[in-house]
Design brief:
mainly alpha
Length: 61
């Protein structure tokens, strides 16, 4: 079982690796977040009612 110190170090290394990969791939955080948001919406769109969808008239469903 990981100690609190181990968990902190793991989180630190995850963030550092993420930043390194962003740099190496040339991907910006905003672009990645936009892709993740769109994917999340696509995967969960079935939870949105027809009346709710009317609020988002600029989006194509």
């Amino acid at each position: 079982m990981a100690t609190k110190k181990d968990e902190i170090e793991i989180e630190k290394q995850l963030k550092e690796l993420f930043e390194l990969l962003l740099k190496k791939t040339g991907v910006k955080k905003k672009d990645l977040m936009d892709m993740m948001i769109r994917s999340f919406i696509k995967e969960n769109l079935d939870l949105v009612s027809a009346s709710d969808k009317k609020k988002f008239d600029k989006l194509i469903f």
